[in-house]
Specification:
Layout (H helix, E strand, L loop, with lengths): L1 H17 L19 H13 L2 H6 L8 E2 L10 E4 L30 H7 L2 H17 L4 E2 L23 H16 L4 E7 L11 E4 L2 H8 L1 H8 L5 E4 L3 E2 L2 E2 L4 H11 L5 E3 L8 H6 L25 H11 L6 H16 L14 H14 L1 E5 L13 E5 L24 H9 L4 E5 L9 E2 L2 E2 L10 H13 L3 E7 L22 H11 L3 E6 L14 E4 L7 H9 L21 H4 L6 E3 L4 E5 L8 H7 L16 E8 L3 E2 L4 E9 L5 E11 L10 E10 L4 E8 L6 E3 L4 E3 L3 E8 L7 E7 L1
Parallel strand pairs: 2-3, 3-4, 4-6, 5-7, 5-19, 6-9, 11-12, 11-15, 15-16, 16-17, 21-29
Antiparallel strand pairs: 1-2, 7-8, 10-17, 13-14, 18-19, 20-22, 22-25, 23-24, 23-28, 26-27, 28-29
The structure holds beta-D-glucopyranose.
């Protein structure tokens, strides 16, 4: 009898589902844009009406480290999510952070997001999201916990390497195609960490105090773009507080801004352990609770999930009349929508893991993101036809970087080290010698994934330097791979860096080698700026990021000139912390509020983050935002506006770009807007458009960049809205924030 009743209940839903095409046949190299509107809403309502209270409660909280329950009765399977954002994280045990020990969860490690941002190429961002989405599909993950778009506020930020840099416009342009590329496959993107999560060390304690203007102009735009343009299906709340409420259940950021102002129709997922209060979790915009440590149970106790705020506690409270079901139904609708968009979407292709196409994508992104910071005397590219011996120095030439760094740690199917990459590229024609140079962190284990490398070396710093200097003397080139790594207090989740300086005595090593060999090249592996007191003594400096599986291959191709570098810094590279607003104003990490365990961190620098601060204070950084050299040269001139005056801010600018050198290369044409007169203080200039163009030697082309009213606006704290004031503006165009030779004025009427 009961079974029969079931069948009747399920039949309409089953029929709806049966109407879907079964997938797998699509060309997975091309994004497929799914129809995710009307029929989904009908299916959501249908399923919602059939669900019991307990079933509804079950879908809004975790049942394991990375999954939540579906509704088996209705044919809704478990929902699986995984980190993100640079590759699909290997499976951990159901209830523990240790490895599940699968043999099919090695992945392609894509370049960390700072590198993606440094490509200034939104097409590559789409390719990134799409390739990662295919890996997720193969592994049966329905949502990737990424990308991360928190703003680079200080070079001490432990997770900057996971983000898209300091500029709200650049990060917005890069996040949208990432999300679209991934979601086109029916894999949700969970954009994180919303919002104001700019401090790792005290991420659970920091209560951010920030002006509405800085919030809207600097910290929110990338999230806004991900939601309004990318139509992200997931947003992860951040650990920290804002207006004294945790960001995983925050009335202002979630209910007001995200869901009401921006119309977000997806799911707000708590960061793992970011839920703290039943009432706020019910009322303040959280939809799915993950990772909570529970009521005195040890972390990972098998029944812990039942003790989550949005689990039995919530169910009891509803049964006792403390809450109605309005909030619950809103959460469940969103979760069901997520199911129908992802694992219940039968049009999804099957995905692919570690495919050639994915390695190619990883390599291309890496090659376009590597930044040539300095190249005095054209030391680079390495002239391999005349070189006999190259000395490679440094721990980062051999250390695997895909393991470590926190939740973005991966089990890469392969990772080509910089040393290996150079050896492979140069074959037998050039001798590639190696000296360790410094010993950093010899560990290589994260949550049970081990690199298998034994990097122990008991020699003293002096001995290591002496060996490298001796070998450097007779070498045609010395290539040092140094920088940071993914260990605690470096580029790693959970802590911030303690200093901006290079660790492990590397400054001494670099100076000694530069003195020993005039053709010394320093490749900095990091997601953050480091101090370079020796900059003028080292002729060539390259920013090599953490670029994943194809690291060595990509670096070698740029160093020997197979690839002409075209990356541009997505953040300002200050000489010291004193050139960073947050530090100059002593506004990091804030002040403990007595007896509360809370740190009030006031963003005293307001909107003056990155180059906005450098411009205002004329700090003359080591390298400017947007800076990056090429092996060819470009000239940018003849800037024109399509009109002299605009009433709505829609205006186009055309500029001529010429490759004046003798080899093909790509340049990023950057357009900044300067508000000449305004009733509020405005940054000297702000990036509002850019385009990457590839030009053959001698080729010349016009590039058109368009802006709209938003590009001229500031956040008006009185009307609580964007406002553009009539008057004169300037458009400044060039190839770096400190090299903008073209200028044209126009008026907003
Ligand atoms: C991190 C998130 C991550 C989550 C799950 C948290 O500690 O902040 O970025 O997605 O863990 O691993």
């Amino acid at each position: 009898m009961k079974v029969k009743k079931y069948l009747w209940a399920v039949l309409p839903l089953a029929l709806t589902l049966a109407g879907c095409k079964s997938g797998g046949a699509e060309d997975t190299t091309k994004p497929v844009y799914l129809d995710t509107t009307k029929d989904i809403e009908e299916r959501v309502e249908d399923a919602l009406q059939r669900m019991t209270l307990t079933e509804k409660i079950n879908v809004i909280h975790a049942q394991s480290k990375f999954s939540s329950a579906g509704v088996k009765r209705l044919g809704l399977p478990d929902f699986w999510t995984d980190d993100g954002p640079h590759g699909v994280r290997p499976d951990v045990l159901w209830d523990e952070w240790e490895q599940a020990g699968q043999t099919n969860d090695s992945c392609v490690a894509f370049p960390a997001l700072t590198c993606l941002a440094a490509t200034w190429n939104p097409d590559l961002s789409r390719l990134y999201g799409h390739s990662l989405g295919e890996e997720a599909l193969y592994r049966n993950k329905n949502m990737i916990l990424g990308p991360g778009v928190n703003i680079y506020r200080t070079p001490l930020g432990g997770r900057n390497f996971e983000y898209l840099g300091e500029d709200p416009y650049l990060s917005s342009r890069m996040v949208v195609p990432y999300v679209q590329g991934m979601q086109a496959l029916g894999v949700a993107s969970c954009v994180k960490h919303y919002c104001l999560n700019n401090d790792e060390e005290y991420r659970h304690q920091v209560n951010v105090i920030v002006s509405d203007r800085a919030l809207h102009e600097i910290y929110l735009p990338a999230f806004e773009a991900a939601v309004k343009e990318g139509h992200a299906w997931g947003i992860m709340g951040a650990y920290n507080l804002y207006k004294d409420q945790h960001n995983c259940h925050n009335q202002y950021t979630l209910n007001q801004i995200l869901k009401t102002d921006w119309g977000f129709d997806g799911v707000v997922v708590s960061d793992w352990g970011g839920t703290h209060d039943l009432d706020q979790a019910v009322k303040n915009g959280l939809d799915m609770e993950f990772g909570t440590w529970t009521d005195g149970l040890t972390m990972g106790a098998t029944n812990a999930y039942e003790n989550y705020y949005l689990s039995r506690q919530y169910e009891r409270a509803i049964n006792e009349g403390q809450y109605g079901t309005e909030e619950l139904d809103d959460k469940v609708r969103r979760v069901l929508r997520l199911f129908f968009r992802t694992n219940m979407n039968k049009e999804r292709p099957y995905g692919a893991l570690c495919s050639d196409a994915h390695y190619e994508a990883a390599q291309q992104i890496a090659q376009e993101g590597i930044v040539l910071l300095r190249n005095e005397g054209n030391v680079l590219p390495i002239d391999i036809s005349n070189a006999k011996r190259i000395l490679v120095v440094g721990e980062n030439a051999i250390k695997m970087m895909t393991v470590g760094g926190g939740s973005s740690s991966l089990k890469a199917q392969h990772e080509i080290s910089p040393l290996q990459g150079l050896q492979d590229r140069l074959g037998g024609s050039v001798e590639v010698d190696y000296a360790r140079g410094y010993v950093g962190d010899v560990g290589g284990n994260y949550n049970g994934v081990t690199t298998g490398q034994d990097l122990n070396d008991s020699r003293s710093p002096e001995e290591l330097i002496a060996e490298a200097v001796e070998k450097a003397a007779g070498a045609d080139y010395v290539v040092i791979f140094g920088g940071l790594n993914k260990s605690d207090y470096q580029d790693c989740e959970g802590h911030d860096r303690k200093t901006m300086d290079l660790p492990y005595n590397q400054d001494d090593l670099i100076v000694a080698l530069a003195q020993a060999n005039p053709k010394t090249i320093y490749v900095n592996i990091s997601g953050n700026a480091v101090t370079m007191p020796w900059k003028d003594q080292v002729p060539a400096i390259v920013q090599g990021w953490f670029i994943g599986s194809e690291a060595g291959r990509a670096l070698a191709s740029v160093l020997v000139g197979d690839v002409n570098p075209s990356g541009k810094l997505p953040f300002t590279w200050p000489k010291s912390l004193q050139e960073v607003g947050a530090h100059a104003l002593d506004a990091f990490p804030g002040v403990w509020r007595e007896g509360t365990g809370i740190i009030d961190e006031e963003y005293k620098e307001g909107i003056y983050v990155g180059y906005r601060w450098a411009d205002k204070n004329q700090t003359n950084p080591t390298f400017a935002f947007g800076h990056g050299l090429s092996y060819t040269t470009f000239e940018i001139n003849n800037l024109r506006a399509d009109k002299k005056a605009t009433t709505d801010g829609n205006i186009s600018f055309t500029v001529n770009v010429t490759n004046t050198g003798d080899r093909e290369g790509s340049e990023v044409v950057q357009l900044y807007i300067s508000d000449v007169e305004c009733s509020v203080e405005r940054p000297v200039k702000e990036l509002k458009a850019f385009q990457k163009v590839k030009l053959a030697a001698g080729e010349s082309r016009d590039v058109t960049l368009s802006i709209n009213g938003r590009a001229l606006s500031f956040w008006d704290e009185e009307s609580n809205d964007w406002k553009a004031e009539a008057g004169e503006f300037k458009a400044l165009v060039g190839n770096a924030s400190d090299n903008l030779p073209c200028e044209v004025s126009f008026t907003l009427k």
